[in-house]
Specification:
alpha+beta; Jelly Rolls; 4 domains; 5-stranded mixed sheet; 7 helices; 37% strand; elongated
């Protein structure tokens, strides 16, 4: 399913099919074609032999002008690539398409088919373009996965993936790039577009800091696009990118997150990853660039922040507990002090209040009983022990509710 095609090539109706049967009964089959319409669909009639397990389809655009045409190569089984009329947004249904060639407007496009799969279904190949062009179609059958464009003779092929020589990147090793070592300053000329890359082993997040130094008087805007991959892919809009724009004599610092898929796609303990940086400028400029590449930096920083937060929270809880303890201690101390501040009643007071309203027992008019009783400021009489127990829960008089403490 492709959505971005609609932005590049404006079709108003479903793709028109023009069928062309192709018998593939040898290792290499070549067709020179000229396409004058926006779309061309070819029905592939594949005669499969036992030794053939894969089919590499390559398209070489014959275009002498510097401006590349917009072209995409699509493949589908059972029926030709076509619009999904049920979708709200226009999109094309297919099984495979060359996203790399489309995004980078390349003159070379390719697809790899596995002949063991869907062998009972018809296979269709569609070429969409925005201008009349001539191209060469090359069909190569093989019992192993072949690499695109034979790695441009700048690398080695391993299970359908190019292992490019130093100084070259892209899926077919066709793009020149400058290899750099992290934490070392180097001078680079940005002639509109320049790729730089490095190789690293990591299983965690890391920090990347790019420092630009230029003697240019006028400010120059640089667009930066970065990709982390285990292959020599180029940064573009469809893959995992980090995009920034800076001016000269500026620094950009980025936190790049480690992706679990990098570790799952390799068997070794410390996977080898590529950091590919695309630098693009409006004019030709010379820069001194220093790239500070530190693994585990953010991991340690976040760990320190976590420790600080935990310690602060524990300290806060301890302070709260201490304050609560001080409050309770002072309250209890005040109650203890207030136990003895009331007066002892007289016999005349006992005659007026003959019983303790807390325990509801009669108060005896004896000297010992008077000493064991108290008279509050509100002129009520209680047993001293009863009132002390009452004050442990209430601060008011049991009869008139006047505050006693």
């Amino acid at each position: 399913m492709i959505r971005i095609l609609i932005v590049i090539i404006h079709f108003q109706t479903i793709i028109t099919l023009q069928l062309l049967e192709i018998d593939i009964n040898q290792d290499v089959t070549i067709f020179n074609m000229t396409q004058k319409r926006l779309n061309q669909t070819i029905q592939l009639k594949i005669i499969k032999e036992e030794k053939f397990r894969y089919l590499l389809i390559e398209l070489f655009v014959k275009l002498k002008s510097k401006s590349n045409s917009k072209l995409v190569l699509l493949q589908a089984y059972g029926q030709a690539p076509q619009y999904d009329l049920k979708a709200q947004k226009k999109r094309i249904l297919c099984d495979k398409y060359d996203a790399n060639g489309l995004q980078l407007s390349k003159k070379y496009h390719y697809l790899q088919l596995q002949l063991d799969q869907n062998s009972n279904l018809e296979s269709y190949l569609t070429i969409l373009t925005n201008k009349t062009l001539s191209y060469k179609l090359v069909f190569t059958a093989s019992n192993i996965e072949l690499c695109p464009n034979n790695c441009s003779n700048r690398g080695q092929c391993a299970q359908g993936k190019c292992q490019c020589e130093q100084g070259f990147i892209d899926e077919d090793c066709s793009q020149f790039a400058k290899f750099f070592l992290p934490q070392k300053q180097f001078t680079i000329s940005i002639s509109k577009l320049q790729y730089i890359y490095t190789i690293f082993n990591t299983t965690s997040d890391y920090r990347l800091r790019l420092t630009f130094d230029s003697k240019n008087q006028a400010e120059s805007k640089i667009n930066i696009q970065m990709l982390i991959s285990q292959h020599h892919n180029l940064p573009c809009n469809f893959n995992h990118n980090y995009n920034h724009t800076v001016l000269d004599q500026k620094m950009v610092e980025i936190k790049l997150l480690y992706d679990n898929y990098l570790q799952s796609n390799v068997s070794n303990k410390f996977p080898q990853n590529f950091l590919i940086i695309k630098l693009e400028s409006q004019e030709d400029i010379n820069y001194k660039i220093k790239i500070d590449f530190q693994t585990n930096y953010f991991e340690k920083k976040e760990e320190s922040v976590t420790i600080i937060i935990v310690v602060s929270f524990i300290s806060f809880l301890i302070i709260i507990i201490i304050l609560i303890f001080i409050y309770c201690f002072r309250r209890q101390n005040n109650r203890s002090q207030n136990k003895y501040q009331h007066k002892n009643p007289q016999q005349s007071d006992i005659q007026r209040d003959t019983e303790c309203s807390i325990c509801q027992e009669t108060i005896q008019i004896t000297q010992e009983s008077l000493e064991n009783c108290v008279k509050t400021d509100c002129e009520h009489i209680f047993h001293n022990e009863c009132l002390n127990q009452w004050l442990n829960y209430q601060q008011t008089c049991p009869i008139c509710r006047e505050i006693l403490m």
